[in-house]
Amino acid sequence: YAINASNIKPGSRVLDIAAGTGDLTILISKRIGPQGSVILSDINEQMLRAARTRLARAAIPDNIQFAQADAEKLQFEDNSFDAVTIGYGIRNFTDKMQALREILRVLEPDGQLTIIEFSRPTSRPLRMMADAYSSLWPRFGEILVGNGKPYRYLVESIKMHPDQETFKSMMQDVGYAHVSYEC
Question: How many CB atoms lie under 10 A from the CB of residue 29?
Answer without folding.
Answer: 24
